[in-house]
């Protein structure tokens, strides 16, 4: 399993300090913007509040609005150097101006939207090549939410309803950015009932670790360590223990059977070792040490 650089992978709908929905009220920390995922991004970045944060809005069809929301949220957290990187056409991903901005960035924050827009617009461009080069620097950070999270993996889910997820052939994947190998991320996971999507991905290739992130939940990944951040849950689906399935014996559209699938649940501060496949559950007392 290979991880390129320092990554923050977010399940979508992270607290920006302007939400009042029931989920946020139920799960948010006290003064959540000061202890939440966006704050952690700042704290983990090279220059903290002075870090250059570029908000990439390529996945969105309303880039100015989405980008503006993040600029406002980061500025509430005292980040002093945030801007919108609005690449909407492949030609722009070859432009020297945008390449210079990425080269000078400490954090690239990739918003939600449609992950196929990200791969089709950025894949194979100088911008994408520079991103991979930047990730060789352990202090540079890629942060992605929703579509920006899904695209980070080598294999990326782009289609498939939750209700039909356990019918063979209903889940469609393509190549993502490849920032992490042997993993597939799924977002808005609890809210949209997407666990069946990961079951199908994993049973078709048990070497892949399926990771489902609840909204307002993230993972900080560096090296072989993956720490849960934010107030929600992360579900890990590990197919290496599968004893038997009917996957190769059935036609498309037929329900899938499998035996002995392993599922882990992570919450804030828990750590998963991607190399040894071991989950360490942290208690509040552990976190005080």
Gist of the model:
With 289 residues, this protein is α/β, with parallel strands linked by helices.
Q: How many runs of DSSP E, i.e. beta strands?
A: 17
The main sheet comes to:
9 strands, mixed
**What is the mean predicted local confidence, pLDDT?**
93
Task: Give the helices and strands as they follow along the chain.
Answer: EHHHEHEHEHHEHEEEHEEEEEEEEEH
Class by alpha and beta content: alpha/beta
Question: What portion of residues is helical?
Answer: 25-40%
Features:
289 residues; alpha/beta; 9-stranded mixed sheet; 4-stranded mixed sheet; 17 strands
Topology readout:
Layout: E1 6-10, H1 22-27, H2 32-35, H3 37-44, E2 53-56, H4 63-76, E3 82-85, H5 96-104, E4 107-110, H6 115-122, H7 126-134, E5 141-145, H8 147-150, E6 155-159, E7 172-175, E8 183-186, H9 195-204, E9 209-213, E10 218-222, E11 225-229, E12 234-238, E13 244-245, E14 258-259, E15 262-266, E16 271-273, E17 278-280, H10 284-288
Parallel strand pairs: 1-5, 2-3, 2-4, 4-5, 8-9
Antiparallel strand pairs: 1-10, 6-7, 9-12, 10-11, 11-16, 12-15, 13-14, 16-17
Helix pairs in contact: 5-7
Task: Give your account of this protein's structure.
The protein has a nine-stranded mixed sheet with strand order 3-2-4-5-1-10-11-16-17, sandwiched between helices. It has 289 residues and is an alpha/beta fold. The chain has ten helices and 17 strands. The longest helix is centred in the first third of the chain and has 14 residues, at 63-76.
């Amino acid at each position: 399993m290979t991880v390129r650089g320092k990554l923050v992978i977010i399940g979508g709908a992270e607290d920006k300090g302007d939400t009042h929905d029931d989920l946020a009220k139920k799960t948010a920390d006290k003064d959540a913007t000061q202890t939440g995922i966006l704050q952690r991004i700042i704290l983990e970045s090279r220059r903290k509040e002075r870090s250059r944060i570029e908000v990439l809005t390529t996945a969105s069809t309303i880039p100015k609005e989405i980008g503006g929301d993040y600029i406002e949220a980061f500025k509430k957290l005292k980040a002093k150097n945030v801007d919108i990187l609005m690449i909407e056409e492949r030609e722009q991903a070859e432009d020297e101006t945008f390449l210079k901005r990425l080269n000078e960035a400490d954090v690239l924050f990739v918003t939600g939207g449609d992950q196929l827009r990200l791969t089709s617009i950025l894949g194979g461009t100088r911008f994408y090549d520079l991103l991979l080069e930047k990730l060789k620097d352990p202090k540079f950070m890629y942060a992605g939410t929703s579509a920006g999270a899904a695209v980070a993996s080598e294999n990326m889910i782009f289609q498939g309803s939750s209700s039909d997820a356990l019918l063979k052939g209903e889940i469609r994947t393509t190549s993502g950015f490849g920032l992490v190998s042997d993993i597939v991320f799924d977002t808005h996971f609890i809210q949209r009932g997407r666990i069946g999507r990961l079951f199908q991905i994993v049973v078709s290739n048990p070497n892949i670790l399926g990771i489902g992130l609840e909204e307002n939940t993230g993972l900080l990944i560096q090296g072989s360590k993956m720490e849960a951040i934010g107030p929600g849950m992360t579900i890990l689906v590990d197919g290496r223990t599968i004893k038997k399935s009917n996957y190769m014996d059935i036609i498309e559209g037929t329900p899938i059977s499998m035996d002995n699938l392993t599922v882990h649940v992570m919450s804030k501060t828990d750590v998963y070792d991607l190399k040894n496949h071991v989950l360490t559950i942290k208690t509040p007392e552990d976190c005080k040490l």
